[in-house]
Amino acid sequence: MTDDWAERLRRKRAEKDDFFAEHQQSPIPPEERDAFDGLEYFDPDGTYRVEATVSRHEEPDPVEMETTEGRTVRYLHLATLSFELGGEAYELAGYRQAGDESGTLFVPFRDKTTGQQSYDGGRYMELEVSGDLADGETLVLDFNLAYSPFCAYSDTFDCPLPPETNWLDVSIEAGERAP
């Protein structure tokens, strides 16, 4: 990991803090923005930037994810991402919302920091994928980019909760901390 990588991450975090503090679409309620002085983050740590091997699902399984408001929203399980962290093997499912044709792979997860050091509803990662995913392809999972959904900051948002298949039995001390 280079210092340049950590500096780019810090700049990205500063941009997000500015958005949350000033933008009209910020999830921070308007009456709380003056007191907002930035999100809490774990320190950048290259240990949590890993390569994952893609197992593509040719016929993606539909998955009904529960939301923070008790509804369900349909996603398609497009791929399974296999990776190692601390010498242990793990898997996360990658999803795309039914009807979404973007190149974004949605990876919601919980870990042993959930509800303690990080938001109790879990955190998200989004991976930009160019073209179709190929079986055996490798992607970088950078948990330093893991973020809390908007519902962590305001009850006006309804967010999908990570399904049990994406509950990791390890502490991921990277990305955003609990608000």
Automatic annotation (TrEMBL):
Coiled-coil stretches: none
Gene3D superfamilies hit by this protein: 6.10.250.1680
Annotated TM spans: none
Region annotation (Disordered) ranges: 16-40
InterPro entries in alphabetical order: DUF1684
PANTHER family recorded: DUF1684 DOMAIN-CONTAINING PROTEIN (PTHR41913:SF1)
Protein name: DUF1684 domain-containing protein
